[in-house]
UniProtKB/TrEMBL annotation:
Lineage: Bacteria, Pseudomonadati, Pseudomonadota, Alphaproteobacteria, Hyphomicrobiales
Active-site residues, as the UniProt record annotates them: 213
MF annotations from Gene Ontology: lipoyl(octanoyl) transferase activity
Alphabetic keyword roster: Acyltransferase, Cytoplasm, Transferase
Enzyme class: transferase
Organism: Jiella avicenniae
Protein name: Octanoyltransferase
Matches recorded under Gene3D superfamilies: Bira Bifunctional Protein, Domain 2
Length: 260
């Protein structure tokens, strides 16, 4: 996931400023808004089920029938194709391929990767898609910092990157770097869906069937690959705490087996 797709009737005004100029550490809802509902799903969720649940919830949020939500889950091994996916970037159809409807190109999801689908109403916050993407990046970077991992943004590449100075320099003479977290969103009626994926301990060889996010010349990494062995509940707890620092209060969904 590397980009976003907007399908609301109004479009955010284009900005001539560099992408990194949209950096923001706060993206709060207006005063009096209810807390964001926080879901943590057990097991592996089939991608079509997650997509259907997002579609239904986005409609309910837009209509004022449901509160904003974040859904944390893992998928079985699969590839998703964003609206900008190129046929040549699918190298090996070793896993099921799904059309995602979000922005960006091909990405991989699978066990050991924490996916967070972020369903927020920008009408209650800020009708600025660039600032929303920047806030997602700030959320991930703050979470990684708790593990002493220096995540970084890039002007020409959405997502969060980690420098790998121990590896040979890149062909362009720059320090090697790997992507540790991807971002791909869609916006409908000013409600966001899809979201982020953070590599905790996935099988990194599974990324070899695609050109991840259409970006050649850079690799992928994970917390485990960086020597940081943590459980998914540990990651979830930090994600929630850092989410609240950027986006505001959450409340656990009572129906989740792992609600806390």
């Amino acid at each position: 996931m590397t980009s976003f797709h907007s399908s609301h009737s109004q479009k955010a005004a284009p900005s001539p400023a560099p992408r990194l100029g949209a950096a923001t550490d706060e993206f709060f809802a207006e005063p009096g808004s209810p807390p964001v509902e926080w879901h943590v799903l057990d097991g592996l969720t089939p991608y079509p089920d997650a997509l259907a649940a997002m579609e239904a919830r986005v409609g309910a949020i837009a209509d004022g029938r449901a509160d904003e939500a974040v859904i944390l889950l893992e998928h079985p091994p699969l590839y998703t194709a964003g609206t900008g996916a190129q046929d040549g970037d699918l190298l090996d159809r070793r896993f099921p391929v799904f059309s995602a409807g979000r922005g960006g190109q091909y990405t991989y999801h699978g066990p050991g990767q924490r996916v967070a689908y972020v369903l927020l109403d920008l009408k209650r916050r800020r009708q600025d898609v660039r600032a929303f993407v920047a806030a997602l990046e700030a959320w991930i970077i703050a979470t990684l910092a708790e593990f002493h991992v220096a995540g970084e943004r890039r002007e020409d590449r959405v997502g969060v990157w980690v420098r790998r100075p121990e590896r040979p320099i890149a062909l362009d003479g720059t320090t090697a770097e790997d992507k540790i977290a991807a971002i791909g969103i869609r916006v409908r009626r000013w409600v966001t869906f899809h979201g982020i994926s953070l590599n905790v301990d996935p099988d990194l060889s599974h990324f070899s069937g695609i050109v991840p996010c259409g970006i050649r010349g850079h690799g992928v990494t994970s917390l485990a690959d960086l020597g940081i062995l943590v459980s998914m509940p540990e990651v979830d707890a930090l994600l929630r705490r850092k989410f609240e620092a950027v986006f505001g209060e959450t409340r656990a969904f009572a129906g989740d087996a792992t609600s806390r």
